[in-house]
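Journal club prep, shared notes

We agreed each person brings one worked example of a sequence with its structure written out as tokens. Mine is Acylphosphatase. I'm keeping it raw so we can talk through how to read the token line rather than staring at a rendered picture. Sequence first:
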Amino acid sequence: MAEGEGLVSVDYEVSGKVQGVFFRKYTQGEAKRLGLVGWVQNTSHGTVQGQIQGPTARVRELQEWLRKTGSPQSRISRAEFRNEKTIPVLEHKDFQILK
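Then the structure, token by token:
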């Protein structure tokens, strides 16, 4: 982690065609590639939600990926981020897909 770069935690929810298109698997892969921790899960109302934690710059990269890229067959209509806060230590060990 770069000197002076803090850790952040942010919750997210992505809307559009994001279920049944391997969105969770690709999100997990991208998060792990960036060295982030957290979780992702489908919701009962057709969206995908979760939490990201890690160095601010890397979290911003995943936010951009969730906003614009997603899995190859997904169609993202909206990505919302909330509850962003600075954290002293990571609260998760890895990035998990929750059922």
